Amino acid sequence: MAITSDVLATKMVTRLNCGLVNGKEVFKTKTYSNLKADATIDSIHAIATTICSLQVPTLEEVQRTQTSLLFNDGQ
């Protein structure tokens, strides 16, 4: 009864620092869908920093989100 998984979707999420508003830091997130399932973390980070270098808000962090289907391979 081995449990296996298949990656259904991969997304990249960037968290952007938009500065201070009324004394509080404001953050925005942008999600980029339909990444290749075999994309490496190095390539995802490189793409995120390249995209965000063209924008005014500062890049705070990059996240990779994967959705997987888990199933029992045995029966």
TrEMBL record:
It comes from Acetobacterium bakii. Residues 2-70 form the DUF1659 domain. This is DUF1659 domain-containing protein. It comes from the Bacteria.
